[in-house]
From TrEMBL:
Pfam families: CRAL_TRIO, CRAL_TRIO_N. It comes from Citrus clementina (Clementine). This is CRAL-TRIO domain-containing protein. Residues 79-239 form the CRAL-TRIO domain. PANTHER family: CRAL-TRIO DOMAIN-CONTAINING PROTEIN, SEC14P-LIKE PHOSPHATIDYLINOSITOL TRANSFER FAMILY PROTEIN. Transmembrane segments: none annotated.
Length: 329
C-alpha cells in the first residue's frame, strides 16, 4: 500500500496553487471541496512521486478542458431509444451503499455486449456515470456522513463470460485507460463474482501483470459472493446478481436490476442530464452523436494486459476446438 506523506501533499498543493483558469475551474469540479483527498489519490496513482503525480493531474485537467468534460452532464445521449440500447448492452448501475457509506456500483462484465451503439456513445456514457458519481453521488454521501467519501465499491459479475469477449477488449481497454489516467484511485475494492472457467484461466496470467496496489483491491469471491458481501452491505444494497433468487444471472426483472434504464439510479441520472441540457442549451436540442471525447492511447500496462488476455483466450479456443462449444460452458 502506498503511503503518502504530508510533505508530499504540501508540495503538490503548492504546485496546484499556481494553476490558472480554466484549469483551476475544472480542478474544482474534480475535488468538489476536498482538494487534499484528490491530491492524495493522484499521489497514490504515481507511488507518492510528486513530480509524476503533478504531471498526471495536469494532463487530466488539460484533457477535461479540451474535451469539455465539465459540460458532459448536459449532453444526453439521444434519442432515448439509443440510450436504452446503451444501457442494455453496457451493463453498469448503482445498487446501493456499503455500511461505511460508499456507493456500490455493479458491472455486468460477462453479459455486456457493447454492440448496439458507437464506441463514442459507450465512452460518453461511462464518463457521464463517473462524473455523476463524483459530482452528485459522492458529495451527497459525504454530506450525509459528515466526512469525505471519495471512493466507491465495485462488484463485477462474470456471468456469461465467453470467448466472444475478445471483440470487446479494445473498447474495455480504452475505458480502463480513461479511468486510470483521469479518475485514479476512485474504487476502494473490486469484488469479482460468478466466475466461470474462462475468467479463472485468464486471471492466473493477468494477475501478475497488475500493479501491487491494484491486486490488493481485487477480491475474487466464491459463487455469487452473497455471504461475503453481506459483511459490508445490507441485503437491499446487494446487486441483483448476488441475491440468492437472482444469483447466476446479470439480467433480472423489476427495479432490482440496477443495469436497467428503469432502475431508480438510471432514471435519476438520465433526468439529471436532461435537466442540465435544458439549462445549458434551452433552445437547440442536442443532436444524436454530437458529443465525442478524444479516445486515449491505452497505457503500456493496459495494452500488455489486453494482449495477454487475447493470447490466453486464443489458447483456450485452440485447446477446446470451436468457440461455440466454449460459449456453452
Amino acid at each position: 500500500m502506498v503511503t503518502v506523506s504530508p510533505e508530499a501533499v504540501t508540495q503538490f498543493q503548492a504546485l496546484m496553487d499556481q494553476v490558472d483558469e480554466p484549469l483551476k475551474i475544472t480542478f474544482q469540479n474534480i475535488h468538489r471541496g476536498y482538494p487534499t483527498e484528490t491530491l492524495v489519490r493522484f499521489l497514490k496513482a504515481r507511488d507518492g512521486n510528486v513530480s509524476k503525480a503533478h504531471k498526471m493531474l495536469m494532463d487530466c485537467l488539460h484533457w477535461r478542458v479540451q474535451n469539455e468534460i465539465d459540460k458532459i452532464l448536459s449532453k444526453p445521449i439521444v434519442p432515448t431509444e439509443l440510450y436504452r440500447a446503451v444501457r442494455d448492452s453496457q451493463l453498469i448501475g448503482m445498487s446501493g451503499y456499503s455500511r461505511e457509506g460508499l456507493p456500490v456500483f455493479a458491472v455486468g462484465v460477462g453479459l455486456s455486449t457493447f454492440d448496439k451503439a458507437s464506441v463514442h456513445c459507450y465512452v460518453q456514457s461511462h464518463i457521464q456515470i463517473n462524473e455523476y458519481r463524483d459530482r452528485v453521488i459522492l458529495p451527497s454521501a459525504s454530506a450525509k456522513h459528515g466526512r469525505p467519501i471519495t471512493t466507491c465499491v465495485k462488484v463485477l459479475d462474470m456471468t456469461g463470460l465467453k470467448l466472444s469477449a475478445l471483440s470487446q477488449i479494445k473498447l474495455l481497454t480504452i475505458i480502463s485507460t480513461v479511468d486510470d489516467l483521469n479518475y485514479p484511485e476512485k474504487t476502494n475494492t473490486y469484488y469479482i463474482v460468478n466466475v466461470p472457467y474462462i475468467f479463472s484461466a485468464c486471471w492466473k496470467v493477468v494477475k501478475p501483470l497488475l500493479q501491487e496496489r491494484t491486486r490488493k483491491k481485487i477480491q475474487v469471491l466464491q459463487g455469487s459472493g452473497r455471504d461475503e458481501l453481506l459483511k459490508i452491505m445490507d441485503f437491499e444494497s446487494l446487486p441483483h446478481f448476488c441475491r440468492r433468487e437472482d444469483s447466476g444471472s446479470s439480467r433480472s426483472s423489476e427495479n432490482k436490476n440496477c443495469f436497467s434504464l428503469d432502475h431508480p439510479f438510471h432514471q435519476q441520472l438520465y433526468n439529471y442530464i436532461k435537466q442540465q441540457s435544458l439549462i445549458s442549451e434551452p433552445i437547440q436540442p442536442v443532436k444524436q452523436g454530437s458529443f465525442h471525447v478524444d479516445l486515449p492511447e491505452p497505457a503500456a500496462e493496459g495494452t500488455e494486459i489486453a494482449k495477454t488476455i487475447e493470447s490466453e483466450l486464443h489458447k483456450i479456443e485452440n485447446r477446446n476446438g470451436l468457440t461455440q462449444s466454449l460459449d456453452d460452458v
